């Protein structure tokens, strides 16, 4: 049995009409040294995307969202935007690192065949 809970178009409309704001997103690239085995991260050019952004001072219930620790902010971005762990998000001049990123489906399918991801829930921490 397939039941639509939230479609990609529904989420886009929510960002466009109600809660979306512009944020800057820089994608991380990881490289591992052949000599030392040490991982280094570099960031590409930032691009602007529209997402739902909330600071934790606004009393967000993190347990229900599935996050393991309480960050400085949360962000819900379109799945198609490809936000992932360790990416950088800049909002109002503050730079955050994505520590947790969960892809969320908008469809519940008991068979698992019709699952489609709609958005990515991100736990953000301020860079020190």
Any overview of this molecule?
With 128 residues, the chain is mainly beta. It has a single domain, classed as Thrombin, subunit H (Beta Barrel). The chain has helices at 8-19, 62-65; strands at residues 2-4, 21-26, 28-32, 39-43, 47-55, 73-78, 88-91, 94-105, 107-109, 117-126. The strands form three sheets. Strands 2-5-6-10-8-7 form a six-stranded antiparallel β-barrel. Strands 1-9 form a two-stranded antiparallel sheet. The protein is globular, with a radius of gyration of 16 Å. The protein starts with a strand and ends with a strand. The mean pLDDT is 80.
How does the SSE layout of this entry go?
Layout: E1 2-4, H1 8-19, E2 21-26, E3 28-32, E4 39-43, E5 47-55, H2 62-65, E6 73-78, E7 88-91, E8 94-105, E9 107-109, E10 117-126
Antiparallel strand pairs: 1-9, 2-5, 2-7, 3-4, 5-6, 6-10, 7-8, 8-10
Short summary:
With 128 residues, the chain is mainly beta.
Keywords:
two-stranded antiparallel ribbon; mainly beta; Thrombin, subunit H; 128 residues
Calculate the terminal CA-CA distance, rounded to whole Å.
47 Å
Which regions have little confidence, pLDDT < 50, spanning 5+ residues? none
Instruction: Write down the domain tally.
Output: 1
CATH architecture: Beta Barrel
Helix content: 10-25%
Strand order of the largest sheet: 2-5-6-10-8-7
Kindly estimate the percentage of residues that lie in beta strands according to DSSP: over 45%
Class, according to the CATH hierarchy?
Mainly Beta
Largest beta-sheet details? 6 strands, antiparallel, barrel
Order of helices and strands: EHEEEEHEEEEE
């Amino acid at each position: 049995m397939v039941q639509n809970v939230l479609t990609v178009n529904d989420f886009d409309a929510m960002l466009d009409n109600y809660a979306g704001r512009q944020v800057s997103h820089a994608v991380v690239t990881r490289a591992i040294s052949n000599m030392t085995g040490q991982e280094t991260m570099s960031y590409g050019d930032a691009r602007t995307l529209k997402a739902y952004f909330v600071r934790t001072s606004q009393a967000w219930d993190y347990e229900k969202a599935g996050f393991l620790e309480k960050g400085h902010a949360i962000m819900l971005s379109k799945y198609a935007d490809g936000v992932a762990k360790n990416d950088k998000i800049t909002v109002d001049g503050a730079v955050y690192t994505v520590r947790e990123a969960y892809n969320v489906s908008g469809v519940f399918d008991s068979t698992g065949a019709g699952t489609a991801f709609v958005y990515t829930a991100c736990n953000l921490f301020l860079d020190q």
